[in-house]
Amino acid sequence: MLSRKRIMGKILIVDDSQMNRELLADTLADYEILEAENGKDAIAMIREHATEISLILLDMIMPEMDGLEALEVMGKNNWLDDIPVIMISSEDSPELTHMAYELGVTEFIRRPFDALVVQKRCRNIIALYSKQKKLTDLFADQFYEREKNSRMMIDILAHIVEFRNNECGMHVKNVQNYTEILLRALLKITDKYQLSETEIELIGNASALHDIGKISIPDEILNKPGRLTDEEFKIMKSHSAAGARMLSDLPFHSEEPIVKLSYAIARWHHERWDGRGYPDGLKGDEIPIAAQVVSLADVYDALTADRVYKKAFTHEKAIDMILNNECGTFNPLLLQCLQLSQEEMRAVKEKGSGLNSKGEHEIKAFARELLKNDALYSSDRILRRLDYEKVKTRFLKGMLGDCGFEYSVSTRILTLSDNVAEAFELPESIMDPFSDQKLTAVFGSDTVKTVIELIRKANSEHPVIQLYLRRITDENGVQKIEVSTTDDGGYDYRVVCLTVWAVDDQQRYVGTMGNFVLNDCPYGIMKGADTIDVKGIL
Amino acid sequence: MTLKEFYDSIGSDYKSVLLRMGNSEKMVDKFIRKFPNDKSAEQLFEALKNEDYTLAFRMAHTLKGVCANLGLDKLQKASSELTEALRNQVADNTPELSEIVKSEYEKVMSALGELD
Known about the structure:
heterodimer; A: alpha/beta; Rossmann fold; Hypothetical protein af1432; 3 domains; seven-stranded antiparallel β-sheet; 12 strands; about 15% strand; B: Four Helix Bundle (Hemerythrin (Met), subunit A); 7 helices; elongated
């Protein structure tokens, strides 16, 4: 009997009348039943049992917190995305019924109800939700896997070129990031080029192959520290046409938009706005916009990086040089974009690419397109989950050790890895950590306040926060933790956190994950996934 | 008095009650016998006496729901009317309506006493 109930699912019955609860519990004898007397108890119960609950039957008029108020809380916590709610009430007022639907109930059953109808509806809704959840998970997994693989292949290919070119390994990533930043700025100031978000992603991806032709350039020329002779420079310049040929000669995929874009970028990323570039001497908007933008991104990154033949210029110097036409001539609109997005580019330059800007947009755009054609995924829950999972995986991959923790707004649960939990004698999961007494007792209210303060100041552009903790013993012999946001060298733990943001119309804080790094363990320092040594792998 | 006779005596249709409860006579029997334990009616009268109309509204609402499912049609109708009067808090006819609820409640209780 018990195993049957487990398979059928768990139903939470929320009603202030014991009689009503009993009647429903008897009607739904095939399920495991949880009961709550009012909205408040129900919320507590959902927090405790979270994902175990397959369905909630909710009364409307109750003391403490009524059904509609409870629904509002559930909606705010995004629980309604995963747990269906049937409202059961003898309420006849159409306004209240409408309000219930607006707040997200799946069904409204009026009293007196028919036992058979209640049984059937519960069964159908639970089946529907679990089917959708399975499909969503499946879709997310497959999509993520697919996306990861193709991205990885492009990255590897691009890194091979860089490796040969003795570039630092960040060039391709940087160009990709700058390209997208500039294109988004362009989209803001003009509709001349009719760019969509999907195309921006595509151009960003295609930009990874802009220098693919360099694999045909001899090593002595490619990596010559001194000035190239005219003859050598001629050979060097052949890389753009060579790269284009490689792409146009592909025996497969040659009609794919990404291949066509890659071709245009590889061939024309050394053209100049004034027509004095190579290989074709195209002028102005004869040069495809994708190639124009990559060209500018390429120049900016080349200027601000060390090369065999030169030292890096500062960001300011590089911008000045570009604006003064010292490094070629560019579309005036693009120069305007460069000025507009300077700070964003500088941030990528300084922080390195990767933690937040790349990938999310792309996944979102792709998923949205899929969703448009498929009513099944009408909820944007999957997008949120994809964003979150993707950022999370990438961040976690880049970290050494397993002294991590994770907090998600939707569940309001802080999860500590067993090492951290053990070190601080805390449970592995903590509900509502910002007001948790145990947590405050261990880390001190100053630490909690500092964290809240830092999260408030963070955003998707600046998602990383750090603090330094020191274990001290006060005059009464009590062990305490002292917090600082700056490194005075004497700390015991450095805490590195990534705040995660969902960006749609506006930014929404969705959680934080991070790691404790011991001061005397330098290898515990975060290692960005993007700086993994490719040479070592090859 | 059988279940059918009980429902006849209070002016309800036993057949539809039975159908709603999954055609289970046992279930109807179990829950109708629990009705005297349900405190919503007593709490309603208490709240009315104390002029606590917010609580009275909630209790009338609960009583209405309980009666609906048990097929206590007349008491359900009376408590429904009282619920609406209390919801708007224009309590002009509240005393009359509560008297009707009381008298219907007593009818149900006394009929329940005669159940086999």
